[in-house]
Amino acid sequence: MATSKAILSVLQGCNSMRKLHKIHAHILINGYQDDPCISERLLNFCAVSVSGSLPYAQLVFNRIHNPQTPAWNSMIRGFSLSPSPLQSQAAILYYNQMLSASDSRPDTFTFSFLLKACEQVKEEAKCREVHGFIIRLGYDRDVVVCTNLIRSYAGNGSIETAHKVFEGMPVRDLVSWNSLISCYCQAGLHDEALRMYDEVRISKVGFDGFTLVSLLSSCAHVGALHMGVQLHSFAREKRFLENIFVGNALIDMYAKCGSLASALSVFNSMPKRDVFTWNSMIVGYGVHGRGDEALAFFERMLMARVQPNSITFLGLLSGCSHQGLVREGVRCFHMMSSEFNLEPGIKHYGCMVDLYGRAGKLKEALQVIRSSPFFQDDPVLWRTLLGSCKIHRNVEIGEMAMGKLVHLGSLCAGDCVLLSGIYAESKHMHGVARMRKLIQSQGIKTTPGWSWIEVGNQVHKFVVDDKSHPDSKEIYRKLEEVVHRASLLGYAKEESEKSQVEESESHPEDYYYYYCWERENSTSFHSEKLAIAYGVSRTPEGTSLLIVKNLRVCRDCHSFTKFVSKAFDREIIVRDRVRFHHFRDGHCSCRDYW
Fold this sequence. Notes:
The chain is mostly helical. Helices cover 63% and strands 4% of the residues. The protein is built from 30 helices and six strands.
């Protein structure tokens, strides 16, 4: 007869449901089904192990007489870890049942798993209810529970409440700090995440790879190169550079902050590389418009016997599109399925539409859409085609794309602005008026535009005609000088941009999603102009400026930045929502192919 100790030992080494069924049979035969240690170990494997089975766990659980807290925890944990929202909801049901139908009380593990489920199914009301119970039972002083409470609130969009929980914690460990920083990153509050850097240092809880990866991600998003360089130095000092995740984050940060040379230096120094390492470089070359170098790096990747994935090809197609390498882009697209058995997704087809569209091959772009599996129901491809029609002033295909967007019920203000721009450049003023009337009648909102610039380890944000900055008077005085000096070299405002602007008192700051449509007239200024003026006034002569913009830069600002780079002898790097522009000595790296 098998002893309970022997059964527990066998359960410890169990790695499949097939073995577990045999072990369970021995348990039943030998009458150990009511042994708490054995039943809980059996249940834990079924509910939590990657080789387990939640349906079988339910069968086991239902046969346990008076289950205690560990058994409830196994069920709540198992369902909370499921990617299925329905199963995560089951975790909450088991918790409710635990409170109402048993004498077991929740503990640290119960609350941690339950809060994970609340995050998964977006149950903020339940999260708040549980928070109250946590306080009543005294677990609000438990660092593990409070850390999971922070994550749950943040996952439900309640960042302020998450911060309040953090502030109320009597003790905070590194995991708590990492959780809050990560929550800010995931919510897009990257400036808030970066502000935590000094606070973490003051707290003396230390740093780990997770801290660095989160902070570097925020640096990448806002273009905080100087902060990123500081973090790089810290990682070198604390010997985190051997961490492949930190290395990948550094490459991504440098590439997105406009310094491909530094990204390449990190790449070359990494002792180990994975597909994400190679992808970071290829995507970096792609968004900088250096498609030929992205292709060369791809060849190096294959020689290193690293298998590419779908992200690899997005980087390649983006680079080919921005550099006008149509033939090479088409080859890469077909190579995905023919050589690497990768099925192109909507983004790959979008890149192909963009590749042909930028090159003026609008009929080929249209054929890509019609031959794609996404032809019937996805507006992204038609919107991309509409953008290409704006570049090449093609009214006929532009109207066709617009008609498809209307048919799909996916019309947005940006689409109307694009077609309005096509009409304006074709002197079709009736069409312009029709688009503006459509925006007003449908109450369509446009996307607010902004520009970021990092000066003195602080990120400054500007919008059109921004007066909120504490140094706004100085900024506007400097901008007058900048415009004057650019004008002396030949800068003149683009009239075609002004013709697209809709003056509106009710919406004083309207912007466009794909193209910069910030309201600018002879006495107002786009956000990047304000950022440039601030950068010129607050940095030493010859210092490079990096501007991060959430919209595509307009032709007027593109022209303006060329002249400013020459007038002030500076390199100005602008990262818009599409690509990088490196301005130097009156020229742009895009060579006006954008």
